[in-house]
Every structure is written in C-alpha cells, then in structure tokens.
Design brief:
single chain; mainly alpha
C-alpha cells in the first residue's frame, strides 16, 4: 500500500476497518515476541529441570529492564503518528533520529549494568546452586542483546506510526523461526547448553534489527532516518520522556511484581 493510500485509509477510512487492519498485525507481533522465551524454554527443558527453570526464573528481570525501551516505543508511535498525520515529515525524521539515539545509549548502559550486576540480581532473588549458575549465564547473555531489542522497538514505532504494522510482524515471525532453528544447534550440536539458547536468541534479534534498518532506509515511505549533523534536542527528549515515562512505570511495575514473586518461590 502506497503512503498516500495508507494515510488516506487511516484519516478517512471506515473506522472499524482501519482498527482491524492496523491492530491484527500488532497483536500477532506481540504474541510472536513471547515465542523467543518459549522456544528457549522448550529446548532447554531437554537439558534438565533446573536449566528449564532458569530461563523462566530470570525472564521478569529481563522484562523489567526493557520496560524503558517499551516506553520509548510508545512515545515514538504517539509522537510520530501525529506528525505523519499532519504531514510534518521533516519534524518526524528529527524525532525518529532522537528516538534511535536515546534508545541506543540507554540500551548499551543497561546491557553493561545488567551484565555485571547479573550475579547479584540472581542472588537477591534467592537462587542458589545450579539454579543460580544457569540463571546467571542466561541472564548475562540476554542483557548483551538489549541494543537489538531496543532498536527493534524503535523500528516498530516508526513503522506503526506510518500505518505499516505488517512489516514488523513479518520480520518478527522470521526472527522467531530462526531462533527455533538456531536453539538446538547452539544448545546440543555445539554443546553450549543454556548459554546456547541465549546466544541463539540474541543472534536472531540481531538479524531482525539489521533487516529492520534496511527496510527503514530503503522502504520507509514517510520517515527517513538521517544522522548527518545530529545533535540531541532538549525539547524533543523532554517530550519523549513525558509521554513514554508513564508506560515505562506501568510495564516495570508488572515486571517487578513477578520478580518479587519468583524470589518468594525460590525461597
């Protein structure tokens, strides 16, 4: 669908038709995102019950940290969709660049902090023995994949703001299939165990991001990323934080609750 046709559909199309066309791929995409952890757990379960428990044990911690990325994505979709609707494409380009830059910075910081704090986090949650060992391995490698997770959130928000909810869903589906294929290779063929599951997930997410960046550069109709002469804009960053922060709090609250629950279970 061409950009004008898609924009015309969103602005002047039948409301129920627009909602269905835009929402179904988003719902499917959210479902696909859960398949990464599910696929890891499925293959890791063949190693043993403790290894299987480790992947689920640390998932709330991972989700707690990526809540910021989700908040930035929500802010991006909100701001960019308004600018696209108003045909302010240059302003939308500037906001998109700000979103990508701030996401990259925060994701790298979180990745490094999470990697080095992982043993303490697992210990605080009450894990001991083999559960602590495998949980720490899986968590540390998962943290290193944060930049790819955050960047894909940005790709999602940029494409969704233009009314293209299908492309992110297709890419997520392909990435999930790649993860399912890579899992047994890294876990069993290369004999990497729990670490192999995490590495397979990170690699599949990396491929997802590279494909997303290619689409943004070649096939994004209204928003074009341009970092030439890039500088952080205080007002833009303030607006992004104001819109994204409430969503971050909501998402992190749920993740923190499950983290505490897991610590009680472990004890």
């Amino acid at each position: 669908m061409k950009k004008l046709d898609r924009k015309e559909l969103i602005l002047n199309g039948i409301m129920y038709k627009v909602i269905i066309i835009l929402s179904l791929p988003i719902m499917l995409n959210n479902f696909i995102q859960t398949l990464y952890n599910l696929a890891d757990a499925m293959w890791v379960s063949k190693l043993g019950s403790v290894q299987f428990a480790a992947t689920s044990f640390v998932w709330p911690v991972i989700f707690l940290f990526i809540s910021l990325g989700i908040g930035i994505s929500v802010a991006g979709t909100s701001i960019l969709s308004q600018l696209v609707g108003a045909s302010e494409y240059e302003e939308a380009n500037r906001y998109a660049s700000q979103l990508m830059a701030i996401s990259m910075i925060f994701s790298v910081i979180f990745a490094l902090l999470g990697y080095f704090l992982s043993p303490y986090i697992v210990g605080w949650m009450g894990a001991t023995g083999d559960l602590a060992k495998y949980s720490n391995i899986y968590l540390q490698i998962s943290f290193l994949g944060f930049p790819f997770v955050f960047l894909f959130f940005n790709f999602n928000s940029i494409m969704n703001a233009q009314g293209n909810t299908l492309a992110p869903t297709i890419l997520s589906g392909i990435s999930a299939i790649i993860n399912v294929i890579l899992d047994p290779i890294f876990i069993f063929t290369l004999n990497m165990g729990v670490a192999g599951a995490a590495i397979a997930t990170v690699l599949s997410q990396a491929l997802l991001v590279f494909a997303g960046i290619y689409i943004l550069k070649k096939h994004s109709p209204m928003i074009k990323l341009d970092f030439k002469g890039f500088k952080f804009n205080k007002n833009m960053l303030k607006k992004i934080v104001e819109i994204g922060f409430p969503s971050t709090i909501g998402q992190s609250g749920a993740a923190l609750g499950f983290t505490v629950l897991n610590s009680f279970i472990a004890s």
